[in-house]
Amino acid sequence: MIRLENISRTFAGGFSLEPVSFDFPHGETTVLIGPSGCGKSTLLKLILGLLEPDGGHIFFDGEHLNARNVESIRRRTGYVIQEGGLFPHLDVAENIALVARYLRQSQAQIDERLDTLFGLLSLPTDLLARFPRQLSGGQRQRVALARALMLDPEVLLLDEPLGALDPITRRQLQVELKRIFSNLGKTVVMVTHDMGEAAHFADRMVLLHDGRILQHGTLDDLLSRPSDSYVTDFISAQRSPLETLLRGRI
Amino acid sequence: MKRAALLLMLVALSQGTAIADSLSVGSKRFTESYILGEIVTQSARQAGEARVVHRPGLGNTGIVFAALVGGEIDIYPEYTGTIEREILRSQQPLDIEGLNRALSPLGLGVAVPLGFNNTYALAMRRSRAAELGIRTISDLAAHPDLKFGFSQEFIGRADGWPGMRSEYGLPHPMPRGLDHGLAYEALAVDQVDVIDAYTTDAKIARYNLRVLEDDRHFFPVYDAVLIYRLDLPQRLPRIWAALHRLENAIDEHRMIALNSKAELDGQDFASIAGEFLGAASAGWQHGRGFFARLFAPDFGRLAYEHGMLVLISLAAATAIAIPLGVIAYRMPRARQSILSATGLIQTVPSLALFAFLIPLFGRIGAVPALAALFLYALLPIVRNTYTGLADIAPDLRESAHALGLPPNYRLRRIELPLASRAILAGIKTSAVISVGTATIAAFIGAGGFGERIAQGLALNDHTMLLAGAVPAAALALLVHFGFEWLDRLLVPAGLRSAERTG
User: Fold this and answer.
1) CA distance B200 to B275
2) Do B405 and A102 touch (CB under 8 A)?
3) Residue B493 touches chain A, beta carbons under 8 Å
4) Is any Cβ of chain A less than 8 angstroms from the Cβ of B492?
5) Do A98 and B405 touch (CB under 8 A)?
6) What DSSP line would sit under B415-443, residue for residue?
7) In this structure, are residues B394 and B418 in contact, taking their beta carbons and an 8 Å threshold?
8) The 3-state secondary structure of B162-197, one letter per residue
9) Distance from CA of B486 to the nearest CA of A (A)
């Protein structure tokens, strides 16, 4: 669905993304994982054209990403970031319907879609007229997801979408989102640094470190055939202390 | 909306032009001119032929003369020497007939010599002059250490310091420029030794000064006359006849006495003129108290003029400055030139900017004043628009991009609303500054509360000054609170509550 060919990017601060090539398969959830600053968010921004690559090519469903088609490709993509990225001056309904209005969809069409999305994401309709700051963190991320899904995009790009939530809300949303993604059959690319979350969502994982792909594959691949000692270190460092404690008891 | 703005503009412009059945009298910004202007005004009013308006203290010679040529006033009191040297730049002395011959191509004439000669003179403290044995201007040449404190106009005029210096061969360096109103005080405390004065100056006697004899007859004769537009005698014959009754009606002693009433007794010009004309109720008799001055009959007109100056210039500035701010935000290459050009305008002193704009527009009054206020209002709005846009949180800017919205739609629906609070704050800053700067517009005849301030300054009359400054300050406060209300109306609700809590 999305193909990267030798994509690279150097930043003024010294960090650079080494030439990366990768295929994100259609209908699958790929999780980009790695420590802070490994380049996983950079990769998402390159796919969206929010950053220009220094070299290489990006193909979106076979279409070469360039300045002319970037806006229409963005509209075929839903993007959610950690704090939601909702516009504070627009209420929930306006936030979600912003692009639909630009595309001059009818009010009936918009209302119908809002209904569907609110059902899908278990959002009460009395939130429609609220402003983002009047929502809880979980509600905000659900609304952000509704905005991303508004135009029924083929691809969802999620950058730490649950990163700012409390553990209970986070767990609840993990379960719901997994169900939604598999029901909708979307191509999902998710960024997280949480191994548990990655394992929960991923059909495939891509572990990045220092701007390079260290390894990709299923969780099993990473556990049983680590390509590098860093892979093992990264995974074992994320075994929670609680898990270790509990194991001793059982 | 656009049409309303245009209409307001036209109304404001029409303030500057005299209409057919009215007479507009001008005067310069010093006591004697105010009094003579008021005498002319009240004499004309007594004829009962037309509406007579006095536009007091329009400015210096250049500005008032420009107003006469431009038809914004019909007549004002002037001095033959000034017309000859300063206006016509004639090399030889001209009598009234000579002046009329030279002025008629401009559609102007002089008539009605009032009966006194108010020439330039140099004055020293009597005791200091006696101590140094100085009687005449020639005597000054022997005392190169004497400090001169001359008015800027005297320093600059051909018939002032430059001509006098070469005529008398004075060795003194370029003198210090002093406001004429302050020169007497500076002389009294020995900060300067010699000042320029007018021979009818009320303060010569009060400060016990010696007027130095012009032994080489350098200073021309400054007979007070009326300079007028040539269509006036036909257009308003009865007024014209009434004005002729002022011929030779004021000798030098009389003029000094009238000046003293204003400067030493603090009497207002209208009542001085009224007394002189023997009509106690000529014009409007206003009380002496602050509140009586504050709410004098011209209050409504001044408030209207002041408000219009601010409103029109601000509306135009907003319409230009917001797009400029957007360009500065979007085009890094244009940014520096836009921000520094608008910043540069701020550094030009307002009087200098007015002086530059008057020849550009070929007129005084509302038009150059609006242009200057417009230019000053640009910077705060441009800067705040740019900063407001540049300060949008990166994740919001990125989200807007990621949605696939084109630039103009993003600007309209997301970026400008997010920056609205900053932009409004910029407009508010400009508005409050404009209310203050508009007071200076009175110095070029644009009206507003500055008229009272200019008059108060010229007269050293603090009550008059306050009667102009206090309502201007009140207007600034009003504007301030008006914007608080606008903020509630225009800034999106989601942003407002955000600020209250976080």
Assistant:
1) 19
2) yes
3) yes
4) yes
5) yes
6) IHHHHHHHHHHHHHHHHHHHHHHHHHHGG
7) no
8) HHHHHHHCCCCCCCEECCHHHHHHHHHCCCCCEEEE
9) 17
CB atoms B413 and A79 under 8 Å: no
C-alpha distances in Å from residue A36, one per residue of A170, A202, A234, B244, B286: 20, 19, 12, 94, 79
- Cβ of residue B404 closer than 8 Å to a chain A Cβ: yes
- Residues of chain A positioned with their CB less than 8 A from the CB of B502: 133
Which residues, at least 6 apart from A232, have a Cβ–Cβ distance to it below 8 Å? Answer: A226
Q: With beta carbons less than 8 A apart as the criterion, state whether B274 and B42 touch.
A: yes
Interface residue B407 vs chain A (CB under 8 A): no
pTM exceeds 0.80 for this model? no
**What residues in B contact A69, CB-CB < 8 Å?**
none
Q: Which amino acid type is present at position B447? A: G
Rounded Cα distance, B386 and B379, in Å = 10
Q: Is B237 on the interface with A (CB under 8 A)?
A: no
Closest CA to A159 of A59, A226, A77: A77
A18-55 burial: b if 16+ Cβ within 10 Å, else e: ebbebebeeebbbbbbbeeebbbbbbbbbbbbbbebee
Distance from CA of A42 to the nearest CA of B (A): 13
Residue of A nearest to B401 (CA): A50
> CB-CB: which of B396, B413, B493 is closest to A98?
B413
Asked if B388 and B460 touch (Cβ cutoff 8 Å), the reply is no
ipTM at complex level: 0.89
The shortest CB-CB distance from B404 to any of A75, A81, A89 is to: A75
Pairing of strands B51-59, B22-28: parallel
Residues pairing with A16 in the sheet: A10
Taking only the tens of pLDDT, chain B with its 502 residues reads 445 554 444 444 444 444 458 899 999 988 899 999 999 999 999 888 888 988 888 888 888 998 899 888 999 999 998 898 888 888 788 889 999 999 999 999 999 999 999 988 899 999 999 999 999 999 999 999 998 988 887 888 777 888 899 899 999 888 877 877 778 888 888 888 999 988 888 888 788 888 898 898 888 888 999 999 999 999 999 999 999 999 999 988 889 889 888 888 878 888 899 899 885 443 444 446 788 888 888 899 899 999 999 999 999 999 999 999 999 999 999 999 999 999 999 899 887 887 788 778 877 778 889 999 999 999 999 999 999 999 999 999 999 999 999 999 999 999 999 999 999 999 999 999 999 999 988 877 788 998 888 877 766 677 888 999 999 999 999 999 999 899 888 888 888 755 443 3
CB-CB under 8 Å, B395 with A89: no
Spell out which chain A residues touch chain B, with contact meaning CB-CB distance below 8 angstroms.
45, 48, 50, 70-75, 77, 79, 81, 83, 85-91, 98-99, 102, 131-134, 147
C-beta of residue B390 within 8 angstroms of C-beta of residue B460: no
Closest chain A residue to B413, measured at CA: A98
A60 CB neighbours in chain B (<8 A) are none
Nearest residue to B459 (alpha-carbon basis) of B223, B205, B265: B265
Cross-chain Cβ contact B399/A48 below 8 Å: no
Sign for the CA dihedral angle at A38, A41, A47, A52 comes to negative
Write out the H or E segment, with its range, that includes residue A136: none
Residue keyed to tokens 């010569």: B204
Spell out which residues of chain B touch residue A87, defining contact as CB-CB under 8 Å: 396, 399-400, 414, 418, 494
Q: At what angle do helices B450-459 and B299-330 cross, to 10 degrees?
A: 110
